[in-house]
Amino acid sequence: MSEWTIGIIGGSGLYRIDGLEDAHWVAVTTPWGPPSDDLLVGHIAGVRCVFLPRHGRGHHLGPSDLNFRANVDAMKQLGVTDLLSVSAIGSLREDLPPGYFVVVDQFVDRTFARTKSFFGTGLVAHVSMADPVCPRLSAFAADAARDAGAPVTQGGTYLAMEGPQFSTRAESLLYRQWGCDVIGMTAMPEAKLAREAELPYALVGMVTDYDAWRPEEAGVEVTDVLQVLHGNAALARQMLLRFCAALPAVRAPSPIDRCLDHAIITAPEARDPAMVDRLATVAGRVLR
Ligand SMILES: CSC[C@H]1O[C@H](OP(=O)(O)O)[C@H](O)[C@@H]1O
Ligand SMILES: Nc1ncnc2[nH]cnc12
Question: What are the residue positions of the site described as Important for substrate specificity (predicted)?
Fold first, then answer.
């Protein structure tokens, strides 16, 4: 049994968190290079939280330039036990209009220009991604969003695209045919790396637009996205407050806390010592 430390990765439009008590910015270095920004450590409703603006303060990093490994490693270095991502998303469904909060539970990864694993030559691991989000954390997040007064859909498939350009109409229509519900540019490989780091992960997407599949509508523009996000800012803040306030005092273990028990395939004598060193934070539990 242990206590919670909630990592919050804030996406587009979410570059700081008001209401974080005793807050201070902390610079963290990682073996993977620099994270997107310093991390803001403080408390919400008595729960220790670590906030990272995914694109940096001022939004100077695009989705393909994010150092996802450094972001997850930095969270883990600061003692994060569970990771909550808050993202802007496009909707691929008529019944998920702008303003909706979608707590996603599946992903289709169509990104292609990103480093997707902490592991590789010298230390190979294969984690399961069958169930990519933590059901417990996702349920807490959905309840909190509902309590805050947001329209919430629990469950949905997020298509992760490379970007930075938005989709063509043909792509948008194709993703709908695939059964995807929402679209964004950042959840992958973030969710995969969180799993490799044994961090339970949940994603609350805030629908900002209908992407490009509606024939009568022009495609999405950044200004549309930001307008909806600014309108949602108070709701997002309330959601985080209620999320922390409702967490049980004691954190019961999650199976994800130990998912590397079954994942590493490289024999101990064949492991690259430099890789073992680099993985100290992420996988030290099973490598020491
Ligand atoms: C500003 S629109 C496109 C941009 O917004 C989303 O970012 P995030 O997931 O970090 O909220 C989307 O993935 C794109 O990066
Ligand atoms: N339509 C869209 N496509 C990709 N990422 C987004 N983020 C917000 N809206 C988006």
Answer: 167, 222
**What is the mean pLDDT of the segment spanning 78-83?**
98
* Cis check: omega of the bond before 135, within 30 degrees of 0: no
Q: From CA 151, how far away is CA 140, in angstroms rounded?
A: 15
Nearby residues of 278 by Cβ (< 8 Å), 6 or more positions away? 31, 32, 118
**Residue 1: predicted pLDDT:** 44
Residue with CA closest to ligand 1 atom 13: 185
User: Under CATH, which number does the domain 5-287 receive?
Assistant: 3.40.50.1580
CA distance linking residue 259 with residue 189, whole number of Å: 17
Atom 5 (ligand 2): residue with closest C-alpha? 184
Ordered by start, the domain boundaries in the chain are 5-287
Q: Summarize pLDDT for 172-214 with one digit per residue, the tens.
A: 999 999 999 999 999 999 999 999 999 999 999 999 999 999 9
Residue 39 has pLDDT above 90, yes or no: yes
- Cβ–ligand 1 distance for 63 under 6 Å, the answer yes
Q: How far is the CA of 163 from the centre of ligand 2 (A)?
A: 9
- pTM here is 0.98
